[in-house]
Amino acid sequence: MNAGIKQLTFVIGGPYGFSKEVYDRANGKLSLSKLTFSHQMIRLFFVEQLYRAFTILRNEPYHHQ
């Protein structure tokens, strides 16, 4: 889990993505969907995925059995 990354920044883009400068500065790219959503919905999706990931990493129950 620890890849030696000191700082991690997540940026939510607009409906047309980012400018070339933003892409040039990025070391990586993560896409939550190919669809276009409002920034409010993407924030909700993102927080849920973070919660899910950390819950699974802590071996806490997440999925229904």
UniProtKB/TrEMBL annotation:
GO molecular function, one term: methyltransferase activity
Keyword match Methyltransferase: yes
Listed CDD domains: RlmH-like
Keyword terms of this UniProt record: Methyltransferase, S-adenosyl-L-methionine, Transferase
Pfam families: SPOUT_MTase
Top EC class of this enzyme: transferase
Entries under InterPro entries matching the protein: Alpha/beta_knot_MTases, RlmH-like, tRNA_m1G_MTases_N
EC number: 2.1.1.177
GO biological process terms, semicolon-separated: methylation; rRNA processing
Family: Belongs to the RNA methyltransferase RlmH family.
This protein's name: Ribosomal RNA large subunit methyltransferase H
